[in-house]
Amino acid sequence: MVHLLKYDGVRSVAPVLGAMLARTVRRLELGPGVVVVAVPLFPAKERVRGYNQAVVLADAALRGLKGFVTGHSALRRVKNTESQFALTPRMRRMNLRGAFVVADAAKIAGREVLLVDDIYTTGATARECARVLMKAGAGRVWVATLARAQTEGVAAWDGLRVMPWAGAESLQE
Question: Which residues form the Phosphoribosyltransferase domain (predicted)?
């Protein structure tokens, strides 16, 4: 289903996926006012795809997260990075360095942030986004994804193991 949303343009799966993600996030019992930020795509890539699957997913999850607020505009991707697919974990980190900036620090200052993405592979994207958000003044940053990629060398998922399709972890610097 994630593949359908991300690569095939089947946005009709988003409500189901968003509800699944929201159900998992609710188990964290986060307080009201959490700012939900989707991992941004580079603008040219989003124009080609026609949408950002992380935004579609986050918006669908927000319907089931009372008291959470949208903050997608707080984070922007400013570097057109190469595809992460074939990169090693170290190369992914280097590829993403400087790729994200906080565009609206007031929106996240002192607040808990729920960063939403579709797939967690090595954590490079989540960590870089969290680093930038926290440097700009965000409080705790939580990461929620629908899927955890299984790759060689990855023995376990460190996140919230509520269901095999979702994970969340708090990232602190």
Answer: 55-150
